[in-house]
Write a structure and sequence with these properties.
It is a single chain. This protein has 476 residues and is mostly helical. The chain folds into two domains: 392 residues, MFS general substrate transporter like domains (Growth Hormone, Chain: A), CATH 1.20.1250; 44 residues, no CATH class. It is built from 17 helices and four strands. It has a two-stranded parallel sheet with strand order 1-4. Strands 2-3 form a two-stranded antiparallel sheet. Helix 15 crosses helix 16. The chain is globular and about 70 Å long.
Length: 476
Amino acid sequence: MSLGGSDPALTAPISIQPGRTSGRDVLAVLRIRNFRLSVTSIFFSSIAMWMARVAVDWLMLELTGNLALVGLAVTLQFGPTLVLGAFAGVVADRFSRRAIVIITQAVAFGGSATLGLLAILGAAEVWHVFLVAAVSGVAGALEGPARSALLGQIVDPPRLRTAVSLNAGIFHVGGLIGPAISGILIGIVGSGWSIAGAALATLVSILAFSMFRTRELAPLIRPAQGTGGVRVALRYIVRKPTILWPMVLLAFVATFGMTLPVLFTAAASETGFDTGSAGYGLYTSLAAVGAIVGAVLSTRRKSVRLRSIALLTGGYGLAIVLGGLVPVYGVFLAGIVGLGIARLLFATGAESMVQLSTNPSIRGRVMAIYLVILMGGQAAGGVIVGWIAEELGMHAAFAVAGGVPLLAAIVVAIILARRHQLTVSVNLRDFRRVVRIVKRPKAAATRKGRTVRRRQAGSSSSAPSQRPDSSTSSAS
């Protein structure tokens, strides 16, 4: 596959360890000192980021009482990624990724510490919140691609799949534990102390990164002259289904389904279940419980496939819809646990497939575009869902937030089914796999015949592991 004048190494096959991740694989990765420090930093950074974002949103609600302005605060936190995200990928592919992470984390620490102190003293104003949200958003836009791409320098290619799964799982667990801690602190001591706690967690993250052994990092593979642009990465993405379709689904999930702070704020408000900050803390805690369960389940995943990502997208959307529309509080709480599980499984699956399908020399730019979709979608979704919650109420907000990803999953599943000749198999005798997506019998037989003929002809391309987008990342 050629990108029209770009470096052929950009599309070279990637050596990926096949099969299910075992406990031995996990232990082997955790023996790498820099990886242990990296996941420690990611865990505390994720907690800090979401603690600050939730507390900032709640502080804005306390200052204004307007859910639409809460959505605007979310937009300012995620919006800079839309502007700087692609440029941040170019930076991550050309400069020290570790240095980028440390500098941006220091900026985030300064913003959280300042706003937390102002809120504790009762001196915080709306413009303070907007300013810190925007500064933190800029730091996050530059940090994300560098942190994601750095993983390929910490572990060698055969262990990359295990590292990506652990990395993504820990990040997203932290992303749901953070709001839970923030909600509890908001209810007990106020939003200012929660923002200050986020600053402390950021400091731990910086300390972990500063302890890296730089001599143990693989050299940074910088792009060749003329291949460092964003357009090269966009063409690369479009031509690889295992990168393109996860990003398409991510766009819908991020824009509508990942606005949980706004949804939970609406559910805890007087127009929802009227549970206040205590209810908000409960909702985020239940979502964190679901994320932990999802993280455990993700380690049992045999492979990462597009069809499973589509199914998880639909499951995530359905959990949000049921949780918000069924007028039973117990069902709502159970739905939160379910969406926590589905979100974690979707997030780890999509990120793993994208990372594992991307050559190291272009990974920074690809992950930058991935994060543009992730953060940019949440920026737009914060305003959209916030407005719906303000004007139409909590139930309408949940219906839209879950219904759009569910519809997108159905459409993508139909496209994949027609393209790869798949069908739905129902087996009521096996409760563990009642519904499965499988190859149509005729298509499977035809594919098997083609494989036999290729082997007889001695074709070297018959082994699936030699295709650039195969191994654990399957286009079906």
